[in-house]
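Thread title: Can someone regenerate the structure for this chain?

I was given the following input by a collaborator and told the matching structure tokens would be attached. They weren't. Posting the sequence so someone can regenerate them.
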Amino acid sequence: MGTLTNKRILLGITGGIAAYKSADLARRLRDAGAEVRVVMTRTAQDFITPLTMQAVSGSPVHVEMVSAESKTGMEHIELARWADAVLVAPASADFLARLAQGRADDLLTALCLATSAPVAVAPAMNTQMWTNPATQANMLTLRRRAVHVFGPGEGDLACGEVGAGRLLEPVELVTLTAGLFATGELDGLTVLVTAGPTWEAIDPVRGITNKSSGKMGYAVAEAAAAAGAKVILVSGPTALPDPERMQIIRVTSTQEMHDAVHAHVREAHIFIGVAAVADYRPVESAPQKLKKGAERIMLDLVKNPDILASVAALERKPFTVGFAAETDNIEQNARQKLTEKRLDLVCANRVGDGLGFESDTNSLLLIDASGITELPAAAKDKLARALIHHISGKYHVAQERQQQAEGRA
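Best answer:
Regenerated them for you:
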């Protein structure tokens, strides 16, 4: 049950006797690899305590619309943005009615309105309440708004009746929650990503670098993590904050990036070289700032190690993906890179004139031995998810072919 690896699940708990199952549910979500945060309504606290849910979820429980601990005073927005999915279990008749009406009179309903993540509800109530036309009308409204409905099940109810209205068992809810995600494609795999520029020092204050912001590499790393991979991100100097849910190694020069990559590449199943590394570095870096004087100075440069080619040349190499940032002849130059460096896939993009570097959008030509796939211009995070989906498919096909070849040997 690894399909929730690296997923952030916001577990909402409303008032009802079935709330006693929420503690087991939180534990099972974590066992499946999810990070869990809990939001409880006031009536939920009559059935199970926030302290219990904090203990089983491993995180503080949120109960108030405005919290002193919130950095912005907008806790519903913070939680809405944090979640990869929202699961309300149990979902009472009252909560479902308020959600259907678009109410935002407590933290849980407010964040359900504010999130762009999938929202799922697991109803739990008396049979007559569940079958009441008002409840059924509310459920129809929620389904039309793409709210996922898990259950309810049928059986013995706490009120002594038998029928529909029983909260599904935690193991069922975990499986259904995992089904909300189209990914999980990289579960159990390790992905090593390089990102950003490198800096080759001329003296303590000057250096050779480029305009790479690192945004695309970071987006690729986050998309791989969201797909279930263990991610190792080797980053050159950027102004970006460290992404969560991955190991981050900060470096400065190309040689440092090369050494960091080769320290970890043997545990990687997939290597994605997004970094825009400097091809050359000064033979010597001046120990002190060079003073302005002569009309001209000469820099003696030496070639840097080729990180991408060195990974692809390993005897047991990972599935190796390179990026080709080009100003012209994009496809021709990318195909040359694919062949010369013995890569499995090249992601080519045009840079300059506001494209590629320092931009929040990008487009890619994905080139391998079988042909070309175009990913049209999109926000880098969306583009990264499409790229990871493509890489996952190519990786699994390559693995099948390798296994078939080994079987024939």
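The two ends are 33 Å apart (CA to CA).
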